Amino acid sequence: MSKVSANPYKGIDPRSYFLAHHMDMIHDPLVLRQLLDTEVHNWVPDLKGVAIIALTAAWWEKEPHSVTELGIAELPLPVPYDGTGDFDHAVFEKIEGIFMQVKAIHARIKPNAHLFNKFPGSGNPDKFNFGRTVFVNIEEARQGLLSILCRPGIQGPGFQPVVLVGHAIHNHIARINEAFKLDILSLGSVIKVLDTQSLAKDVGIKPPKGTNISLMDLSRHFGMIPDNLHTAGNDVVHILINAVFASLQSHPFGFGSNNRTVGDFTERINMLVNRMMQVGKVYPPQNWGTLLFCTRCDRDNHLKESCHAAYICCTICVNSPNMRNRKGARSHQTAKCIFAPVPESKD
Ligand SMILES: [Zn+2]
Ligand SMILES: [Zn+2]
């Protein structure tokens, strides 16, 4: 069994300290299974009030790898499961009910939102499938993260305990810490860090190539064909879904038991994802940032598709010997030119 990290808890709340120790002692896939209250045989402590929060970032492929997007999705606390019934009728139905309440946040970082990646499979940040994108500045993103990760606990003096879920999460935590001057694991709320790559290994899901499975390949294992990954809002929802399904793969009533295979659930999983997209578009957007921001002229009353600002011209590109650069000179301001020299990266 692999562990992403040692017990991460650095707070002072005795209950969180106890829960962090408990989660450190059990097999990682059991953490979500216990939180989702699907366990009927194992002893489980009172997990009331623990938040399950998936977090991911996207950053520009070139130096200095500026963070361009954040994706955050919280799995609401489950209703108790009475332990009766069969996996596909009781547990799966319950999981569907929980996922239908997920309100994912896709926040694009205003000073970096004009930076688009071009690598094969790079996502289009204009296309968030599970809700409405918001644009935030650095401080708004920092405050938004703090408001989610440092909520008052419902029991005891400390913060609400958080189980943080991600894909290659330590890379993302490092980028977020640097970009927003926020040391997530030192805030005193995170009691457990779960990584979908490690969960996949724990339950025997093999990557088709390499040692760590990609989010696309893991999604495919469960029969999903995700649309437009590598943009943080879509990634974070698939991280949450894959983390839960990977944890359930080893469930005694789960995929793989009673001659059931993942394939038996493919249709239902895809229906779930489709419904999440429909419902996500109906939920009101999160109350951080603005719905409109133009990555061309920096105004926040329109998107770049409807930008009529006439004065935009990059002095670097307009004077470039390269004709393609000269042609693109009116697409951005000089201060945001991707052909300008960038500061040395610190890592
Ligand atoms: Zn504009
Ligand atoms: Zn330029």
UniProtKB/TrEMBL annotation:
Transmembrane segments: none annotated. InterPro entries: Gfd2/YDR514C-like, Gfd2/YDR514C-like_C. It comes from the Eukaryota. Residues 53-241 form the Gfd2/YDR514C-like C-terminal domain. It holds the Pfam family DEDDh_C. It comes from Melanomma pulvis-pyrius CBS 109.77. Coiled coil: none annotated. This is Gfd2/YDR514C-like C-terminal domain-containing protein. GO terms for cellular component: nucleus.
